Protein backbone atom coordinates (compact mmCIF):
# COMPACT_ATOMS: atom_id res chain seq x y z
CA UNK A 1 0.00 0.00 0.00
CA UNK A 2 1.27 3.47 -0.92
CA UNK A 3 1.74 6.02 1.90
CA UNK A 4 -0.90 8.75 2.01
CA UNK A 5 1.73 11.42 1.56
CA UNK A 6 5.52 11.61 1.43
CA UNK A 7 7.07 14.62 3.14
CA UNK A 8 10.78 15.38 2.86
CA UNK A 9 12.24 17.21 5.85
CA UNK A 10 15.61 18.62 6.92
CA UNK A 11 15.34 17.77 10.62
CA UNK A 12 16.00 14.52 12.52
CA UNK A 13 12.57 14.71 14.23
CA UNK A 14 9.11 15.92 13.17
CA UNK A 15 5.70 16.58 14.70
CA UNK A 16 2.57 15.37 12.91
CA UNK A 17 -1.05 16.19 13.71
CA UNK A 18 -2.65 14.98 10.48
CA UNK A 19 -3.44 18.51 9.25
CA UNK A 20 -5.04 19.39 12.60
CA UNK A 21 -8.65 20.43 12.99
CA UNK A 22 -11.55 18.03 12.51
CA UNK A 23 -9.67 15.68 10.17
CA UNK A 24 -6.53 15.61 12.28
CA UNK A 25 -5.19 13.43 15.05
CA UNK A 26 -3.30 13.96 18.31
CA UNK A 27 0.10 15.56 17.77
CA UNK A 28 2.87 12.98 17.80
CA UNK A 29 6.61 13.53 17.65
CA UNK A 30 8.48 11.15 15.36
CA UNK A 31 12.22 10.43 15.24
CA UNK A 32 13.80 9.94 11.81
CA UNK A 33 17.20 8.75 13.06
CA UNK A 34 18.35 5.32 12.01
CA UNK A 35 16.85 4.83 8.56
CA UNK A 36 16.12 8.53 8.04
CA UNK A 37 12.43 7.84 7.54
CA UNK A 38 9.38 7.24 9.69
CA UNK A 39 5.66 6.71 9.07
CA UNK A 40 3.05 8.40 11.24
CA UNK A 41 1.09 5.69 13.08
CA UNK A 42 -2.14 7.72 12.83
CA UNK A 43 -2.32 9.09 9.27
CA UNK A 44 0.36 7.03 7.45
CA UNK A 45 2.27 10.07 6.22
CA UNK A 46 5.82 9.05 5.42
CA UNK A 47 8.51 11.50 6.56
CA UNK A 48 11.91 11.15 4.88
CA UNK A 49 14.99 13.10 5.88
CA UNK A 50 16.22 15.06 2.88
CA UNK A 51 19.86 14.80 1.89
CA UNK A 52 21.61 17.97 0.71
CA UNK A 53 21.02 18.61 -2.97
CA UNK A 54 18.34 15.97 -3.62
CA UNK A 55 15.72 18.62 -4.49
CA UNK A 56 12.79 16.76 -2.92
CA UNK A 57 9.73 18.65 -1.71
CA UNK A 58 6.49 16.82 -0.99
CA UNK A 59 4.97 14.00 -3.02
CA UNK A 60 1.23 13.76 -2.52
CA UNK A 61 -0.42 11.08 -4.64
CA UNK A 62 -3.95 12.22 -5.46
CA UNK A 63 -3.98 15.12 -3.01
CA UNK A 64 -4.81 18.71 -3.92
CA UNK A 65 -4.85 20.13 -0.40
CA UNK A 66 -2.82 23.38 -0.50
CA UNK A 67 -1.06 22.76 2.81
CA UNK A 68 0.19 19.40 1.54
CA UNK A 69 2.72 21.06 -0.77
CA UNK A 70 6.03 22.62 0.09
CA UNK A 71 8.43 24.18 -2.39
CA UNK A 72 11.53 22.10 -3.09
CA UNK A 73 14.73 23.07 -1.35
CA UNK A 74 16.92 25.60 -3.14
CA UNK A 75 19.86 23.95 -4.86
CA UNK A 76 23.17 24.18 -3.05
CA UNK A 77 25.45 26.91 -4.37
CA UNK A 78 28.84 25.74 -5.62
Care to give the gist of this entry?
By secondary structure, the protein is mainly β.
Structural features, described:
The protein is mostly beta strands and 78 residues long. 0% of the residues lie in helices and 27% in strands. It has no helices and six strands. Strands 4-5-1-6 form a four-stranded mixed β-sheet, with no helix packed on it. Strand 4 and strand 5 (46-49) form a beta hairpin. The radius of gyration is 13 Å and the shape is elongated. The model is unreliable at 58-72 (pLDDT under 50).
The helix content, as a percent range, equals under 10%
Main sheet strand line-up: 4-5-1-6
Quick check: average pLDDT? 74
* Spatial shape: elongated
Unreliable runs:
58-72
Order of helices and strands: EEEEEE
Distance between the termini: 39 Å
- For the secondary structure, the number of strands is 6
Helical region count? Answer: 0
The amount of beta strand, in percent, is 25-35%
* Computed CA radius of gyration, to the nearest angstrom: 13 Å
Instruction: Give me the secondary-structure category.
Output: mainly beta
Question: Major sheet, described briefly?
Answer: 4 strands, mixed
Amino acid sequence: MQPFEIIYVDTPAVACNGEGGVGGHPRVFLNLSGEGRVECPYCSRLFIRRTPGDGHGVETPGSTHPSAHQPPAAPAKP
